[in-house]
User: Which sequence fits this backbone?
C-alpha cells in the first residue's frame, strides 16, 4: 500500500471557519469538537464579530478574510469547508469559487432538500435568533427563495437571553434558560404555523437543543450538524463488501 502526502495533518475532513467569539460552546455546538465522532479542523477569522455578520447583509469587508481562511484550510488538507454562522449564506458563491473543495456556508442550503421531502403545502420553520434580520437575500445566497419554498422565519422575543448570550458574546451561559427559550420558540411556531412540516436551524448555536425541539414539535429538525454529517458520510462511505 502506498500513501500520498502533501499535508502536515491528516484525517480532518471538515474545516470550520469560525467567527471571532469567546462565548461558551456546549456539546452539539459547531465550535465544540466533541460534537462529532470524527476530527474537525477549526480556523478563526479574526475580526469576524457576530455583530458584523448579523443584519440584513453580512459586512462585505469580511469576504476577503473568509476567503483567505478558506484557502488556508484547503491547503491544510480538509475535504470540505463550513462556517459557524448561517448568516454567512450570502458569502456562499464567493467562498466556493475561491477553493477547489466543497463549501457549505450555511445550514440554509438544506431547505430545497427538505422541501422536496415534504408533502405539498408543508411549511419549513426557519429558526433564528433575530427574525427581522433574516431575509430572502440570505436564502438567495444559498440558491433558493422564499417565493418558491414556503418558510416561516421564527425568531426569539426581544429580551431573550439566547441572542444576548451569543450575539452579545458573553463568557457565560445558562443552559436551562436557553433550553426553555428554544422550547418557547418551538411552541410559538407550532401555534402560529398553518401547516408545519419541518424545522431548520439557521443558527449553529441552537444545535445542542435539537433533540428537545424535535420532541416538543414532533417534527424533524435540520441544522448545520445534519449537513456536516451528510457530507462526512459522502466523503467516507460505509464499506459493505
Assistant:
Amino acid at each position: 500500500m502506498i500513501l500520498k502526502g502533501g499535508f502536515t495533518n491528516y484525517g480532518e475532513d471538515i474545516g470550520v471557519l469560525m467567527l471571532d467569539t469567546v462565548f461558551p460552546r456546549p456539546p452539539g455546538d459547531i465550535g465544540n469538537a466533541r460534537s462529532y465522532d470524527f476530527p474537525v479542523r477549526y480556523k478563526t477569522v479574526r475580526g469576524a464579530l457576530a455583530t458584523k455578520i448579523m443584519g440584513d447583509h453580512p459586512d462585505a469587508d469580511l469576504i476577503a478574510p473568509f476567503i483567505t481562511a478558506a484557502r488556508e484550510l484547503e491547503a491544510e488538507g480538509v475535504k470540505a469547508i463550513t462556517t459557524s454562522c448561517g448568516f454567512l449564506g450570502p458569502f456562499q458563491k464567493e467562498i466556493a469559487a475561491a477553493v477547489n473543495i466543497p463549501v457549505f456556508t450555511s445550514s440554509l442550503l438544506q431547505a430545497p432538500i427538505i422541501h422536496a421531502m415534504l408533502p405539498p403545502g408543508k411549511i419549513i420553520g426557519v429558526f433564528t435568533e433575530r427574525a427581522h434580520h433574516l431575509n430572502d437575500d440570505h436564502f438567495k445566497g444559498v440558491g433558493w427563495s422564499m417565493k418558491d419554498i414556503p418558510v416561516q422565519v421564527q425568531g426569539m422575543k426581544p429580551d431573550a437571553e439566547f441572542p444576548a448570550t451569543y450575539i452579545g458574546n458573553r463568557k457565560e451561559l445558562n443552559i436551562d434558560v436557553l433550553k426553555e427559550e428554544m422550547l418557547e420558540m418551538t411552541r410559538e411556531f407550532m401555534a402560529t404555523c398553518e401547516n408545519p412540516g419541518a424545522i431548520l436551524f439557521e443558527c449553529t448555536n441552537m444545535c445542542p437543543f435539537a433533540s428537545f425541539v424535535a420532541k416538543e414539535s414532533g417534527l424533524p429538525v435540520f441544522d448545520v450538524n445534519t449537513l456536516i454529517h451528510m457530507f462526512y458520510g459522502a466523503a467516507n462511505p460505509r464499506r459493505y463488501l
The first strand starts at residue 14 and ends at 18. The chain has two domains: 14-106+227-235, 107-223. The mean pLDDT is 95. The chain has nine helices and eight strands.
